[in-house]
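Reference record
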Amino acid sequence: MRLLLINPNISDSVSALILAEAQRSAAPGTEIDVVTAPLGVAYIETRFEALIGAYATAQLAGEHHAGYDAVVVAAFGDPGLTALREVLPVPVTGLTEAALASAHLLGHRISVIAISQRIQAWYREIIEGYGFGSRLASIRALDRPLASIGGIQDAHAAALKALAERAVDEDGAEVIVLAGAPLAGLARSLHGQLPVPVVDGVSSAVRHAETLVALQPGRALHGSFAAPPAKPHQGLPAAIARLLHAGRR
């Protein structure tokens, strides 16, 4: 099995964290490749940045998906995920969707631990869009400058753990989701240190992608996830244009 993980951000250091956790989590024999956005921002915090990340994700998916059994949008917030389901011939999942699916199996009240205050509004909208709004106990986030996006775990591990503890004690969280690719692997470091289950987006996405491939559910030929209808277009990168046409074959 071959999985393609797409980092919608430009940070190579975060791609390295994604790859390391994905390889630790994957079943024996699963091959993992990570590609990094050639354009965009260091990390996504806002709706507009997510729009840019979704475009970069579409371009990378169009360029690289051939030969892979599933695709993972490897950023919390899953920019472009549902749109890619319309055009890719293989299963697609993302860090938020997969982490929520894992958390759903572990408890009812879910708290998300994030890396910045600004990111909270966008995360809340995404979580509500997936139908988990009533299950969301809280979103707690760091409120400090981030000198290095790839070094957040090293610089702020204690603060992130304290946020998770407050989510349990004060918000009634029954499951903690560590949000975002920069926190990939932190759940392993915190194993046994928190009184509730802790979920990692990268490991969840890899395992759920493997399951979807094994289930062989087929792809949508009708309904809202069928391929987009044929229509004139212009000015699109070749990889994105190919995705528009490939879905209608």
Q: What stands out?
A: The chain has a mean pLDDT of 94.
